Amino acid sequence: MQIACYRGLLPVVAILLGFQAQLAGEAPATIDALLETGLPSRRIDLVFLAEGYTQSELPTFRLHAAYVKDVLFSSEPFREYQNYFNAFAVSVSSSESGSDHPSLGMFRDTYFNSSYESYGLDHALTVPPNDRDPNIEHGYGKAYHLLEQLLPDWDVLVFLVNDPAFGGWGDARGVVCSADYFMGEVIAHELGHTLAGLGDEYSDAFPNDPEPVREEPNTTRETRREFIKWKAWIEDSTRIPTPSSALYENLVGLFQGARYQQQGWYRPKLRCRMNNWINLFCEVCTEALVKSICLRTGTVDSFSPQVARLHLTSAPVQLSVSPMSPAAHSLQTSWYIDGHRVAGPEDSRLALEISRASLGPGTHNVKVEVFDPTTMVRSDPEDLLKNEVIWEIQVSDRRTRRNPNRVFR
Ligand SMILES: [Zn+2]
C-alpha cells in the first residue's frame, strides 16, 4: 500500500469525552475513554455500547466494558497490536434491564431492542436489523446517530447486553454479546468475524445460515496440499487431511469439521478461538487478524513534512516518519532516493536530511517504506504489512535562477 502525501494531512478530530448526545425522545448518552493510544483517525476505534442497562446499572456497564477491554488485550494478536486501538464506552440507559427471550415470552424495553433466538438459534443475540426486527433505526441506526455526535471516526461497534444468559453475534456490521462470565473471550471470537471476516471453525449445524456459502481465511473445502491457503503454516510431515489425534493437536494442518459442517469443510487447527472461545486464536486466524488490523491503520503513524511536493532552496530539509508501535517488536524503515536505497543504519532510520548538494538539480523522488516483520504473518500477497510515503523534491538549477534567460542562448 502507498500513502500519498497529498492525502496525508491528519484531520484534527475532537474526542468529545464527557460530551452528552441525545436522540429525540430518547435517553442521553455519554462517552468515556477506556484506552487511548492516538488520534481516532489513526487508530481502530472500538466502541462499547450499553444495551439493557437501566440508569442505575450504567456504572456496572462501564465496569463490564473495562473488563472486556482488559481481557481482549491480554492475548494475541490484540496484545501485540494494542497500540493500534482506542476503546470507548458509550453509556445510554434502557427503560428495562436485560434483553428479549421470545420463546419464554420475555420482552424488555431496551435502547437498542436486542433479542436472543435470532435466525433460529437460541444463543444468537442480535440488535436490529435482524430477522425479528428489520428496521435498522431500532438498533444499529441509533448507534450511528449517537456516534455522529460523540465519535465520528468510530470503527467497530460492540453492544454489551446486560443479560446473564449466554449469547452473542458477530458480523461485518459489528458485535453483540451478553454480559456473562466469558464475555471477554466471546467478544474476541466475534471480533474475528467482524475485523478479519473469519469463519466459525465448529461443525454444529446452523439451521438458517444467513451467510452465502463462501470460504473464509480459516475455512476451506480444498484438500490438495499445494492449494491450501494456509499452506505456509503446514509442515511437510503433517498428513493432509490431518487426523484429529494428539500427535497433531498443536500443529496447523487440515482438520475436518468447520463452518457448521461435519464433513467436506476443513479448519486449520484442532483448537482455536474460532472453534471455541476458551481457546486462543490459531496461527492462521492470528495472521488474518494482524493483516486486518494493518489494513485499517497502515504501518505509518505520521510523517513530516505533510506535503506531496517540496521545493528545495538553500536550507536542507528533514524528512521524517513515525511508524506504528507494536508491543514487542519494531517496524522496519527503508529510505530510497530516486529508487536507490540510502546507505546507513539499516531498518531503523526515522529521518533523512536532504540538501541541494545531496540531490543535485532536477526533480527527485524520496521514499520511505515502513514494513512490519512480525512472525505472526507468513503470507501477505497484498503487501498489507508495508506502506510507503513518497515526497517529490524539486531542486532548481542555481545558474538558471540567477539568470533565467541564459538557458535560451
Ligand atoms: Zn483459527
List the helices and strands and how they pair.
Elements: E1 2-4, E2 20-22, E3 28-35, E4 44-51, H1 58-72, E5 85-92, H2 140-150, E6 156-161, E7 168-171, E8 174-178, H3 183-196, E9 255-258, E10 261-267, H4 283-297, E11 300-304, E12 309-312, E13 317-323, E14 332-337, E15 340-341, E16 351-354, H5 356-359, E17 362-371, E18 386-395, H6 398-402
Parallel strand pairs: 1-18, 4-5, 4-6, 6-8, 12-18
Antiparallel strand pairs: 2-3, 3-5, 7-8, 9-10, 11-13, 13-16, 14-15, 14-17, 17-18
The chain binds zinc ion.
The CATH class of the largest domain: Alpha Beta
SS class = alpha/beta
Strand count, sense and closure of the main sheet?
7 strands, mixed
Total beta strand runs: 18
Radius of gyration: 26 Å
**Average of per-residue pLDDT values:** 90
Specify the number of helices: 6
The level of helicity is: 10-25%
Low-confidence stretches: 1-15, 400-409
Q: Remind me, CATH topology of the largest domain?
A: Collagenase (Catalytic Domain)
CATH superfamily of the largest domain: Collagenase (Catalytic Domain)
The separation of the N and C termini measures 46 Å
The H-and-E topology, N to C, reads as EEEEHEHEEEHEEHEEEEEEHEEH
Strand order of the largest sheet: 2-3-5-4-6-8-7
Give the CA-based shape.
flat
CATH 2nd-level architecture of the largest domain: 3-Layer(aba) Sandwich
Bound ions, cofactors and other small molecules, one mention each? zinc ion
How many structural domains are formed by the residues?
3
Instruction: Tell me the fraction of residues in β-strands, as a range.
Output: 25-35%
